[in-house]
Amino acid sequence: MSGNKFYLFLNTIKFLKPKQVYYQVFYKVRNKFFKIESSKPHIKDIKPLNFNDSFYYKNSFSMNNAFTFLNRLHVFKNCIDWNYGKYGKLWTYNLNYFDFLNQKKITKELGLKLIEDYIIQDKNLKDGKEPYPISLRSINWIKFVSRHKISNVNIDKILYNDFQILLKNIEYHLMGNHLLENGFALFFGGYYFRDEKLYKLAKKILKKELNEQILQDGAHFELSPMYHQILLNRLLDCINLIRNNLWVQDELLHVLNEKGGKMLSWLQTVTYKCGTIPMVNDSAYGIAPNSKDIFRYARELEIKWDKINLFDSGYRKKDNDFYELFFDVGNIGPKYQPGHAHSDTFNFELYVQGKPVIVDLGTSTYEKNEKRQLERSTHSHNTVQVGSLEQSEIWGGFRVGRRAEIIELKEQGNSVVATHNGYKRLNVFHTREFKTFPEEIQIIDSLSGTISLPNRAYFHLYPDVKNLLVNGNMVKLDENIAIEFIGSEKIKVENYEYALGFNKTKKAKRIVVNFKKELTTKINL
Length: 525
Prior knowledge:
By secondary structure, this protein is an alpha+beta fold. Helix content is 33%, strand content 23%. It has helices at residues 3-13, 18-33, 89-97, 108-120, 131-147, 153-167, 176-193, 196-213, 225-244, 252-270, 291-300, 370-376, and strands at residues 61-62, 66-69, 72-75, 315-319, 323-328, 348-352, 355-358, 384-386, 394-395, 399-400, 406-412, 415-420, 429-437, 440-448, 455-460, 469-471, 474-477, 481-501, 504-524.
């Protein structure tokens, strides 16, 4: 390992919790030298749960064994290969989640046929037997058999065995949203099998992790609006389950209601008037349930929430009848699991009259490749880059070494000003101020220290913004929007790839502004 890679690795693992390191080593050693035997359960008389489910997932399965995940279609001509890996591990994971059981038009007979096909191949399954897909699939199977009042001992045996695998492989080495999903699954398994062991661990995980992972303003601490929607929907499912099944009645329902209300408040605040969410960090279109459906589901469960001001998550949103400005003045989070974080401090999005204008380019892949590295990089966000240095050292697909930290934050009236130390290796500190007025937004950037490298501010435009006219230090856009760059040395327009979802991009334009130490950007609306 080279010196640079060694320090990159060291600056990554130093943030891990001791528990993560322990389980990384423990699972690798155990799995190499010991074989985990499957359980031989005596399953009988398992009754379907009561589950009032009016929430449906988008169509990913169609007749003739055609599956579409991550905008990639594959048709299995003979039998379904549940280990199919041509499109990458995330596609295989999605195939094994069985979300398609919760499509609106999936029939009982067809759903059972798919489950039975999976059971036949159970001994040959690979990725599907990892704890994360087990967690999601088990919930989907339980919801499906409960909705259709199915009692099937073969399904129950596989479910029970999968829960035993999950019990021995809880994702303590990863933590974050993976550990929460393990807890949600164990909760469903506890109710379905009336299993005290499953329920006890589920309760322990959910209480601890929800208290840690849901911030004071209601955000999920990985700071991805997409994962926030996914986890909130799962939490609502648990509330649904408790209310419709009188097995255990304890304080967990109160915890779920409280955290659910907070998460709903945060989601309502960040959701744009047109219904979309900011595409910051690892967020992508077409993956999570949309905000409108989540709010409807919550109202059906009679959960109360209010719109709140953002604070603990580091995000801020300023809006009026004319525009919505969403921006980031917070740290990468959480420190010990930044896998879905980007190098994007002081990034922002701007919607005008309900339409996106300046946007985060989003996420189109989780593969560990150049595209993934590019989409997480500083210059792929609406912020400032000094030379070719990254604010935060993103690497390896889901890792972060040294990371930018907010060292000063002041908020007063219509002004939010913050400073980060992501360039302290150069003895340079970046300060950005957001000032909002009824029809104008000002973004003031200043760099302190001795600067010899070129500095660039990036502004990524939504693909539908096509009319772009550069005149001196002014840029005019559609909708009569004029942007003035005071202090600019050079303005150029470049192409970039905007993510319309996983594996789906569209060409768009971005404005790149070179400046020395100070730049004032005035967006006149």
